[in-house]
Amino acid sequence: MDTEPPGRAPTALGDPRSDDKALGLLLASAHEAARSSLNAELRPLGIETRHFGILVTLDRAGPTSQRGLGALLGLDKSAVVRIMDELERLGLAVRKRAEHDRRAYAIELTTEGRRYARTSATAADEVSARLFGWLSPADRDRLVTLLTGILTRADDGSTGNEPNRS
Amino acid sequence: MDTEPPGRAPTALGDPRSDDKALGLLLASAHEAARSSLNAELRPLGIETRHFGILVTLDRAGPTSQRGLGALLGLDKSAVVRIMDELERLGLAVRKRAEHDRRAYAIELTTEGRRYARTSATAADEVSARLFGWLSPADRDRLVTLLTGILTRADDGSTGNEPNRS
DNA sequence: TATTGTTATACTCTATAACTATA
DNA sequence: TATAGTTATAGAGTATAACAATA
Fold it and tell me: With 80 as the cut, is the pLDDT of residue A165 above it?
């Protein structure tokens, strides 16, 4: 018989269909669970979501500065430094100097890094298939529209707490 | 006709309508922006989202044990200890001993705590109106269904990876 | 033995400020 | 002056393990 969803109880504060606090909690839970799932899938590779994002971005966009990576992924520049330190120590990416601007880097994937980018993308696909695969194209489109609407409205009025406007 | 989404670039990794990684990033961004908005609104009261959740829950459910609060809000018991320390220091809640179980507390709001619970709920309503008020009942229903589906599918498979031997 | 709560610890994420070297 | 990157630091979220008192 149907028991309550285990562990987390997204409706604990009320019904998210009518209760804003419960809807916010549901949003938080879905995000946290999704990230946790991806981390679990990436664990055998020895990387986590933060590395994954940069690997995939570099594999896609080619050599990029740290600031560029931060802008693409919504990360602070200091966060990119830390993640890049880890990726270099893992031998997956290298900091080469940009030719035209000696302040900046042109971050490149190593051969191993490119392999990791693709292997981890495949691993991530398995998580995605489970989490998002059941969505019809219309469902998915709707979800993106709804989330984007919430995001832009939050960013509008959040007391000038602008994220990465650098 | 469509220009790029402002501020954060949730589509930086790709189009979330077709790219799973971008959809995950969008989910993260929406959550983070929502929490940030609520924190900004609660700041004048001197509390944050974590206190808000407990205040509202206590105001609604009446005296509750710490473990009960954690279960309702998806918080670890050690997290509840920390938040309760803060709420007691703020004079908003008190730890009374449960009558039937001398291990447990029956956490109660103070008069001031009840006032805070309602004032902060009103403040939260303003955030909610901006973030969620534009959703039609059908939109909202759909969003809840989609997020719940993602959450349960994530919780299903992500914890099975832990070896967790005894 | 199991559970409530406490403490210690640790890792992640986010954010800021101060600093360097270039531009 | 402004920008790319580095470093240090801090707060918040999440999690676990060890422990005392009680069930």
Answer: no
**Average pLDDT over every residue of B94-122:** 97
Distance B81 CA to D18 C1' (A): 16
The b/e string for B111-141 (b: 16+ C-beta within 10 A; e otherwise) is eebbebbeebbebbeebbebbbeebeeeebe
For an interface test with A, the pick among B4, B11, B23, B139 (most A C-beta atoms closer than 10 Å) comes out as: B23
- Tens digit of each residue's pLDDT (9 = 90 or more) over A59-81: 999 999 999 999 999 999 999 99
Say if residue A160's pLDDT is above 60. Answer: no
Domain contains B115: yes
pTM of the model: 0.89
B8 touches chain A (CB under 8 A): yes
CATH of the domain at B73: 1.10.10.10
For strand D, list residues 75-134 of chain A whose Cβ lies within 7 Å of it. 77-78, 80-82, 84-85, 95, 98, 101, 103-105
3-state secondary structure B95-133: EEECCCCCCCEEEEECHHHHHHHHHHHHHHHHHHHHHHC
pLDDT at B11: 57
User: Which residue type is seen at B76?
Assistant: D
B47–chain A Cβ distance below 8 A for any pair: no
Number of domains in chain A: 1
Question: How many angstroms is C1' of C17 away from CA of A66?
Answer: 19
The answer to whether residue A61 neighbours chain B at the CB level (below 8 Å) is no
| Residue B109 lies in domain | 20-153
| Average pLDDT for chain B | 89
- Paired tokens of B107: 């956490």
